[in-house]
Task: inverse folding
């Protein structure tokens, strides 16, 4: 229906409402868009942290595999792995002749260094549940600081843990 | 069409266009929105590249470990005959026969090669930047490794227990990842590849068991 057919007050009303967007509307839409972008950025940032976490888990699993292999290589010297001595000589792993105790200590030091380099506040521990003898259980535990890690019965919030149980 | 004077004025007023303030404001808002959209797209693209690289890195390393260990599992006869830091010779099963194989690192081709005795080299593992082998030997027959050496020659004096394999894999990655979170990675000096260290131990199961 043409506007001219409408009464004057209706014509004025329609003209007034064809002005475009009010400042409050523009600001509101801008605010909503900002929130949207903020959510998007947060989601992507979180997703990147998850990728880093997954890479850390991948590395941790590979490390535990190596630890397990070495534990089997020195079946009578688990005790040396339990208390990594700072005196361990890493040159045992690079050509030097070493007895089994020195060798296990060298591995313990080597792994601790590896873990500290690759994982934030990384810590590798080897524990025996009762005795480190045949039939006992050896627990290899790797822990590091990770904000995304949820609390479990073994680890608190913000600490990632992976464990490997080996029956001796 | 007849129009009253007042109505004509009203129409003329409504058609005068934007004020300077409206123009500046709308341009500013549009610029803000464009910056946000472009930043979001760039971030999204970077995240996609990062995810691709991480996934490729993990799958490539798992595949490399699996492929090497699977090949070495079918050891037979006298087992490993000799080895250096970059190559190894061993006896393994091939169609029911015990055949000698040579494994070596090919620096030019960035790969590991495998050669059957009397045959030709074939690519065994691609995208390898470097390889280091250590041989864990027992020289006093107490069933414990007492030396990790860079070369090995089969003899009655020593028994080989384990081989420590250190590979550095080349994972193709975009230049865009050189900054930010991925700067923690080790990049190749010349190529657009990330170097992923993969260390694992091959345990010879038939020794001291």
Result:
């Amino acid at each position: 229906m043409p506007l001219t057919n409408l009464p004057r007050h209706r014509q004025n009303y329609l003209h007034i409402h064809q002005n475009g967007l009010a400042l409050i509307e523009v600001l509101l839409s801008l605010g909503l868009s900002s929130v949207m972008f903020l959510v998007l950025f947060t989601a992507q940032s979180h997703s990147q942290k998850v990728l880093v976490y997954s890479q850390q888990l991948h590395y941790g699993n590979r490390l535990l595999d190596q630890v397990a292999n070495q534990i089997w290589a020195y079946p009578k010297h688990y005790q040396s792995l339990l208390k990594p001595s700072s005196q361990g000589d890493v040159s045992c792993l690079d050509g030097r002749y070493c007895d089994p105790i020195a060798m296990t200590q060298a591995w313990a030091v080597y792994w601790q260094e590896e873990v500290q380099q690759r994982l934030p506040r990384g810590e590798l521990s080897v524990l025996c549940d009762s005795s480190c003898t045949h039939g006992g259980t050896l627990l290899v535990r790797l822990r590091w600081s990770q904000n995304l890690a949820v609390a479990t019965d073994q680890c608190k919030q913000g600490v990632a843990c992976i464990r490997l149980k080996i029956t001796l | 069409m007849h129009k009253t004077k007042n109505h004509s004025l009203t129409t003329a007023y409504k058609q005068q266009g934007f004020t300077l303030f409206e123009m500046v404001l709308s341009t500013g808002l549009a610029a803000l929105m464009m910056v946000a959209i472009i930043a979001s797209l760039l971030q999204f693209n970077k995240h996609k590249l990062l995810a691709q690289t991480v996934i490729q890195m993990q799958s490539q390393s798992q595949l490399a470990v699996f492929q090497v260990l699977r090949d070495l599992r079918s050891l037979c006869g006298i087992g490993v005959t000799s080895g250096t830091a970059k190559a190894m010779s061993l006896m393994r099963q091939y169609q029911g026969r015990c055949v000698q194989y040579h494994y070596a690192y090919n620096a030019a081709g960035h790969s590991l090669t495998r050669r059957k005795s009397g045959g030709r080299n074939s690519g065994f593992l691609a995208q390898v930047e470097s390889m280091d082998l250590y041989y864990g030997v027992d020289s006093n027959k107490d069933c414990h490794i007492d030396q990790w050496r860079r070369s090995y020659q089969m003899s009655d004096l020593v028994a080989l227990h384990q081989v420590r394999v250190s590979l550095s894999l080349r994972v193709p990655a975009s230049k865009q990842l050189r900054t930010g979170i991925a700067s923690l990675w080790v990049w190749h000096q010349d190529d657009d590849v990330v170097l992923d260290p993969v260390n694992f131990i091959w345990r010879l199961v038939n020794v001291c068991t």
Observations:
- The interface with chain B takes residues 4, 8, 11-12, 15, 18-19, 23, 26, 30, 33-34, 37, 40-41, 44, 47-48, 51-52, 54-55, 58, 62, 65-66, 69-70, 72-74, 77, 92-100, 103 of chain A (CB under 8 Å).
- Chain A has a mean pLDDT of 80.
- Strands of chain A lie at 123-128, 137-145, 159-167.
